[in-house]
Amino acid sequence: xxxxxxxxxxxxxxxxxxxxxxxxxxxxxxxxxxxxxxxxxxxxxxxxxxxxxxxxxxxxxxxxxxxxxxxxxxxxxxxxxxxxxxxxxxxxxxxxxxxxxxxxxxxxxxxxxxxxxxxxxxxxxxxxxxxxxxxxxxxxxxxxxxxxxxxxxxxxxxxxxxxxxxxxxxxxxxxxxxxxxxxxxxxxxxxxxxxxxxxxxxxxxxxxxxxxxxxxxxxxxxxxxxxxxxxxxxxxxxxxxxxxxxxxxxxxxxxxxxxxxxxxxxxxxxxxxxxxxxxxxxxxxxxxxxxxxxxxxxxxxxxxxxxxxxxxxxxxxxxxxxxxxxxxxxxxxxxxxxxxxxxxxxxxxxxxxxxxxxxxxxxxxxxxxxxxxxxxxxxxxxxxxx
Length: 386
Ligand SMILES: *Cc1c(COP(=O)(O)O)cnc(C)c1O
Known about the structure:
Blueprint (H helix, E strand, L loop, with lengths): L10 H7 L40 H13 L4 E5 L2 H11 L5 E5 L4 H9 L6 E5 L4 H10 L4 E5 L11 H10 L3 E5 L4 H4 L9 E5 L13 E5 L2 H14 L5 H11 L2 H20 L4 E5 L9 H7 L6 E6 L3 H10 L4 E2 L9 E3 L11 H7 L5 E5 L5 H12 L1
Parallel strand pairs: 2-3, 2-4, 4-5, 5-6, 10-11
Antiparallel strand pairs: 1-7, 6-7, 8-9, 9-12, 11-12
Helix pairs in contact: 1-2, 2-9, 3-8, 5-6, 12-14
């Protein structure tokens, strides 16, 4: 079989070719699903690198190769959920680590840090768009890790990755970026100085709302080995079938992200001009407080839009109940459009006073713009707002 040169390719090509070499045995163009828990050995300890699927699986290996190439990382570790990936990362840090974490992170991340790892590490929640506050905290305490989510969920606040990573380097602090909202297609945090990138594969990477999964990607071999050992010991490895589905979904990541963004931009602009809307947050709008940083560090603005209806919960609830194309559901990043109410749904695990303080009010609605015809989506919203 001809050997393709897969380095130096653009991401849209890598997503289709890396990890997708034809099956060596049969020539099958599409990689098989190795739905097996164990592997035969020719003599005790003599095998082809595969012993047991919790440790290694060829389908998962292919997925990890493709993902690592997409983020220009040396290593990728895929897990059974995004939360499992975050859990592995927390176990990889020495007990008692000081961790700076954004105050507007994914609700599940906040819950994991405050109800599972609160006795293992010391979490300092702050607004990571505020560089001065990060600077001050780095001077006050020895910080092991900065947990960045940018853009955040649901307020789409954008932190300056390059500025934060250069500050962190001076203090030997590692930086991890939850890159779920942008996907590797629109943002590559490792290029901006981050040490680790994390994604919920459930969202844009898989893109079809039929898998729950996560991934950590990095270049540091020692840390990779540590995380792999944790993965093998704790056991949240991605299953062969889920790995296969994500490998399949990734092939269209480039066209999907372009379509998500095109629709989101049009919807955001339309919402901004609507009389029943108080405010729209979308990184691609000039009105976004960190639009300049977004333009600098992202190559696109993604498919997530947050808006505030005029009025309160009652008015917001009406919109959520009346839409027909938008599915009222948690999650995001699938080809179908979703709509949700963070205060009641995704962010209910965050105490009300913290939620309100960070700006997640009862009239806030979050949209994950799908790749349907955008005029149909706008008509659906128009009817619901009437
Ligand atoms: C969904 C999500 C997670 C958690 O991932 P799961 O796959 O649901 O476990 C983490 N971070 C962000 C930004 C997310 O959207």
